[in-house]
Amino acid sequence: MLSERILCRQLAAHIGKEVCLAGWLRQVRQVGRHLAFWIVHDRSGWAQVVVSGPLAQSAPSLESVVAITGQAVASRSQQGCELQASAVQVLNNAAELPFELHHPEITAGDEQVFNQRVLSLRHPRNQAIFRIKATALQAYRAYLSAAGFLEVQTPKIVATGTEGGAELFPVQYFERPAYLAQSPQFYKQMLVAAGFERVFEVGPVFRAESHDTSRHTNEFTSLDLEMGFIDHIDALMDLETQLLQHMFATVQEECASELEHLGATVPEIGAIPRISLAEARAVLARKYSHSSPPGNLDPAGEKLLCQHAEQEWGSPLVFVTDYPTEVRPFYTRTHSDAPQLTHSFDLLFRGLEITTGGLRIHKEEDLVQALRERGLDPEAYRFYLQAFIHGAPPHGGFAIGLERLTARMLELPNVRHATLFPRDRQRLVP
What we know:
430 residues; alpha+beta; CATH 2.40.50.140; 2 domains; 11 helices
């Protein structure tokens, strides 16, 4: 019977035919002793099943896996068709549910939702979130591939941290210590120097930060790219603008039903405004009487600056440029006429930083000097530095946090809601 299965969304194309639907039993509405209406879900959506006679007297528990054979008929139901069941096979009985899945939203708290993550992912809202996330990722890959970028895969067990500091997860690598990668930064720069010129990666990164907020997790998906032969960060910001335009347009086109289900609006992107950090801090002080920490923006400042961008330029996104040297990694290129500032940027989207990027130092002697100025031993980075001694072009890149991008695109309250199986300060399972 399962070999002849069709999906719920295909039912209308089989009116008058005997077919098999298989999925999860989401709802049962009993109408008297001998008639019931069942809602069955599969990966494509849902269908109504009319169950009559003896079959209607013993419905399986909700969320049981069932295979139902019957005739597809036209009806006055929401979908214009339904299945009149002639046989029901229970493939797996479900235990009692910890929360209902047929309501518009799951009413349980986040702790219970993530403890029962497999079950909560069956909810239509969660299904919509991750289909949108996957579509955005496919668009990211498609755009960069068409622009001459090569997709690469770099190590996630590394000998040293990309940015130094203590935000590293140590692992035992045979007889010596190693770490989970904070970023593919070193490797994508090395691949530019290897002659690939333009590379991108989709992969997990790990940050041993003790944050417990709605905007942080300790493992997330980073959309990284690096490109050679550029000499100004405008080239990077122009590329990201065009990339996001493509990703958002693809989501709008291919995920219209999912967006409608979530009540989400993906913004139309034109030119994204650009403002220096010094100018941004001045705006926050003047307009909102808000002071962020020296050399940076705090979460409240990011939200206020995005509010300003909406009011001033009609944009939900804003680039912030020219961060101080001390708050950027050692490999970030500084201004020749103002070495206290870097050729770097963040991109804020609806109140949250989703991207960090900039130009890189491309000469070995300058990298050595930058390492020493940070109190780091160049010999510990020799594997990285040697990539530059045989000629590396001027280059730069950026990284987008996929979960943050998805959360802001759909205006979700917590980045964990855009994460299949979150890893945070307290959570290591499921």
